[in-house]
Amino acid sequence: MDVSFLGGPHPQRGVGIVAPFDFALDRELWRWVPDEVSLHLTRTPFVPVEVSLDLARLVSEHETLGEAVRALNAVHPEVVAYACTSGSFVGGIAGERAMCEAMTRAGEVQSVTTSGALLEALQELGARRIALVTPYTVSVTRALEEYLAEAGIEIIGTSSLGLTRHIWKVPYRDVVDMARNAIRGAADALFISCTNLPTYDVIPQLEAELRIPVISANQVTMWAALRHMGTRAVGPYQALIDHSARQHPVTPESLPESMSGSVPEASIPGSVPEASIPGAIPGSVPESQGPVLPEEQEGWA
């Protein structure tokens, strides 16, 4: 059979991704990527250490990063991104810059990190006062606050879960609840930290409700990496990516039906359909039910 008429495959541009060993949201990263770009992922070696600042330091050692980037060199990425928030803010601004320099030396291409991308995104949005959402423990959350303070960013409110495991299993409903709880004053933007925390589908909904830009760890990582390549991330109704969303913020009523209203039950693992709860108000969480969380939590980024 003659398939010459297909004329493919089409040339692909590559982004190399270095992620912590327990990163579980590969599919979410791809959702921000245009068709002509491929992601090439590698992970840091497993270490049997409790989630903590110590673990953040272990998965961001320069030797570890260098080995990961050298493995990616085989597929010739145009840019390399370190997809881990805590691993890239644990050393402060100087530590983040040193990480980029170490990766650039190993791969001889531009390098970005999640925490560095966060500062780029805040500058892009002109945001100086932000609300903060994290799944972390107090000590890791405090380190993020210190990193942002070093960059001149004021935190007006913080909401965190204190988790140490299975962060990728946190349902969208809990992410939304944390976001609402973090807004305790006038904020220029909301940041949802941790590349292992799912956020793609809730960003437009939260922006419509809160009327401020909402950015997340995976979003800013892909936005910055693709920007350094000279192309753009895709993400409708997301202010960081869709400039029209900044000029004309959407309202819940103007979102497509698939995005409007409350977070769909189907996207909430372990949730109970409202119809089966006597007297339930659509979109509410019954007090007796409480937040839906897995029994064990593992994973961080």
TrEMBL record:
Task: Please give one Pfam family short name.
Answer: Amdase
The UniProt annotation puts the region (Disordered) at 246-301
Quote the Gene3D superfamilies the UniProt record gives.
3.40.50.12500
Q: Which domain of life is it from?
A: Bacteria
- The identity of this protein, by name, is Decarboxylase
Organism (species) = Streptomyces ureilyticus
